[in-house]
Structure formats: structure tokens, C-alpha cells
Amino acid sequence: MSSNQSSTSNPILELSFQFALDSIASVEVLEENKKFVIANQYLKCSTSIGANVREAQGAESKQDFIHKMRIAYKEAEEAEYWLLLCKFAQNYPTNEDLLASIVSIKKLLNKIISTSHRNTLLSLGWISALSKLFLG
User: Fold this and answer.
1) In a domain, 57, yes or no
2) In 10 A of CB 2, how many CB atoms?
3) How far apart, in Å, are the Cα atoms of 37 and each of 30, 62, 75?
4) Helix (H, G, I), strand (E, B) or coil at 100
5) Is there a domain that residue 6 lies in?
6) Residue 35 belongs to some domain of the structure
7) Range of the domain at 88
8) At 58, phi and psi to the nearest 5?
């Protein structure tokens, strides 16, 4: 990441940015092998993950943040699909490191989304109200 970046670490920003850079290199290999359609589809979703994560940093509300992170998660699902397709198709280059990275990114995004959602419910007092309702 750039030197003008904040000194505080943000793992999902860093992971998604590095994933996009690594994906660009992987797309070049796909294009060298004349796999243009999959290269184009994969490039769009793999770079969109980080773009949505970055956009979420300036969200207008917690719900907006969660929404953008959910979009990033959906893009990660699509990226994983294209990587798996390359892995199991004949005559397609595969990248196991990218597959491992996308699994890590999806786990982290899922944790961010669930924690943010839970915190939103807590701040609204819904969890305590629901627990009183169901637990007595």
C-alpha cells in the first residue's frame, strides 16, 4: 500500500488491495493463454472487492457500511467461482495462492459483516429487547 496511508493497520483493506494486485498478474497469464472472457470477468470482480471495501470506509451510516461490505463479499464469492473454474477446467492456468487468499478474505468479510450487524442491533437495543422477550 502507499506511503501516504494511515499508520493504523486495516487488514481487510490490505488483503483486498494485495489480492487485486495479485489478480491483475493472474489475469495477464490468462490473457497470454487467450482466455479473454474469463480473464475479463475475473478482473472485474477481483478488483471490485477492494474497491467496495475502500468505499465502505467512507460509509454514510453503519447500514451503508454493512451494505458495501456485503457487496464486497458477493464479489469475493464470484472471484472464488472463477478461480475454481480455472482450477478444474482443462488447459486453464490455476493459482492456489489466490484461492487461499480469497478464502481468507471471505472469512474476514463475513466476520466484519456479522460483527457490524450485531453492534448495530446492540446500539439500537434490539438484542436486549429480543433476549428479554425470548428468555424471559
Assistant:
1) yes
2) 5
3) 9, 36, 17
4) helix
5) no
6) yes
7) 11-135
8) -110, 25
- Taking the C-alpha atoms of residue 25 and residue 102, their distance in angstroms, rounded to an integer, is 15
Kindly state the greatest CA–CA separation across the chain: 64
Put residue 34 in one of left, alpha, beta given phi > 0 → left and psi -120 to 50 → alpha: left
Decide: 29 and 93 in contact? Cβ < 8 Å: yes
- Look up the pTM and report it: 0.85
Domain for residue 26, yes or no?
yes
Residue 22 one-letter amino acid: D
Cell of residue 45, nine digits: 470482480
Looking at the structure of the chain, the number of domains it has is 1
CA atoms within 13 A on the CB side of 112: 24
| CATH code of the domain containing 84 | 1.20.1440.60
Q: How far is CA 116 from CA 15, 66, 92, 120, 134, in A?
A: 19, 7, 38, 6, 23
pLDDT by residue (tens digit) across 19-60?
999 999 999 999 999 999 999 999 999 999 999 999 999 999
